Amino acid sequence: MARVELVNLSKSFGEVKVLHDLNLTVEEGEFVALVGPSGCGKSTLLRIIAGLEDATSGEIVMDNEIVNDLNPRERNIAMVFQSYALYPHMTVEENIGFNLRISGVSKAEKRERARAAAETLGLTDLLDRKPSQLSGGQRQRVAMGRAIVRNPDAFLFDEPLSNLDAKLRAEMRDEIKHLHHKVKTTSIYVTHDQIEAMTLADRVVILKGGVIQQIGTPTELYRNPANSFVAGFIGSPAMNFVDATLETSGGQTTATLQDGTKLVVSVDYAALGRDVKLGLRPEHLELAANSATNAMPGSVRLVEPTGAVNHLKIKVAGQNLTVVDDTLADLALDAPVHLSIAPEYIHVFPKDE
Amino acid sequence: MTTLDTQPPERRMAAPRKRARTFPRLGKYATHVVMITGLLVTIFPFVWVALMATHSRSEIYSSPPPFWIGDNLAENYIKLLDVMPFWTVLFNSLWVATAGTVGAVFFCSMCAYGFFAFNFRGKNLIFGIMIASMMVPPVLGLIPFFLTVQFLGILDTHLAIWLPGIANAFGIFLIRQYMVQSISRELLDAAKVDGASEFRIFWSVVLPLIKPALATLGIVMFIGLWNNFLTPLIVLSSPDKYVLTLALRSVQSIANSPWGAIMLGTFLSMLPLLIAFLFFSRQMMAGLTAGAVKG
Questions:
Q1: Does the interface ipTM go beyond 0.85?
Q2: Average pLDDT, stretch B69-79?
Q3: In the β-sheet with A240-249, what is the strand arrangement from edge to edge?
Q4: Which CATH superfamily does the domain covering A237-350 fall into?
């Protein structure tokens, strides 16, 4: 296991700078997820950590040793790829044992370790099969077997579940988490799926345009997003944003929506200036009576039943807000309703962010 | 795409059935006639050579020429050994073709891997020049080729026939194209992470995956070297180093050319290729048509 540290790491492809002075420390045994939209540089960052790509500037430190000039093997990391990247001409056992074969491990030991890895992942019956004879989930498991067989200092995962269907993805997510609890190896996991990042990781790093937006535990990111990008990215369904103006009077801060509705905001955001964006999470908005605190009048535009809850689109102050309704209220289209939200759940961001 | 088809099944079938009825048999027969004619035209020289190998010179020149199996095979064989060291020459051909083929398969695939896996300054330019070199008629290069071989001091050796071609533009291009479509970058990365050196990646991961292309190049090279006449003609001067093409041609110039023996030698020289083709035709087709169709 290793502590992985990135110090002022930058990467450019020609004129295009894809990573900007990143600083990040992944503690020994920690599971960190890098998450962000396509093209934010998360895969490039992972490839730099793996040694498959050179950093333009900055340092990669593993266990207090700068590893910039070491090749992937010397860094003793293992990587699971999005396409699994199994060797098509080798059997499952040969795939898992390939890196042991290269490092000159004896045949008997290679076989033993490959079988042990296969057993951990439930692949024992498939050892003689070729990758083409395996299902997506099985291939994914072989790719993980190949990673764990050599006891690496760190695991790198590059969107390993994105080629699987939703059900299998959830299963494999559990398996990865289970595996991490078992082997406790430092893991860095790249994904564009915030649910995957939140459920798996001890800490999540949000990247946008090659810049780290926020680092924190899933709960921290959810409760205290550093900016509107993080707020919009974390949480499902995504956070609603509405324009408002802030006023402070008599020790109370209120936000006025475009239709004149006034909402009480718990914290004094006066420093943000008058024009702001309010962030309202769909699960914090609830259908309420006219007289409720922070009641906003609106009308029903759409009802999307998901079984346990309904997703509502309610038009408030000229904008459609998504609401998670766990009361499963029977609503007609265009029916007038009121939404309310507790002041402590209202996030306020600068408007130009 | 799924669309709703409201027509009853009978009506849906009607249109194609009507079209098919117009010229069904004619088309089929025409195809067969064309194919059989093509087959006969292609196979005739081979059969003719085989038949003539059993006849004496006078029978061959008789009019009409005999189109049956003769009884002069043994005499022709004795004559063949008399006019040339046939088995030595056959071995020379085998050696040249095998060495050149093995060398080409190895070096072309290594060069192709270089173009496929590495990024270096001027890569596209070099690759472009290499492709462009395929458009130069080979005959234009004969004199420079001769001068180069002379400079290297390998005139009148077999090396001069097979060595210059072991890294050739066609082979490199063929294999690189095959690599581009059959090997993913992530596979190379995975091997790197597994700790494989570049040569190990090439040897253990890439080579096994491009076998069809290697087989194709191998067969094309073997046929090319086996049938090569011009290069041996230019570089070889000692009769004991002759290859089949050159030896068979050289005895045609003497008075009263022993045509029966020459035909026997020609037929024997065709046998290895025929056998090779029987065994490898499937790989050859697979390699040459790979990438033509997606999937």
A1: no
A2: 87
A3: A262-265, A252-257, A240-249, A275-280, A347-350
A4: Nucleic acid-binding proteins (2.40.50.140)
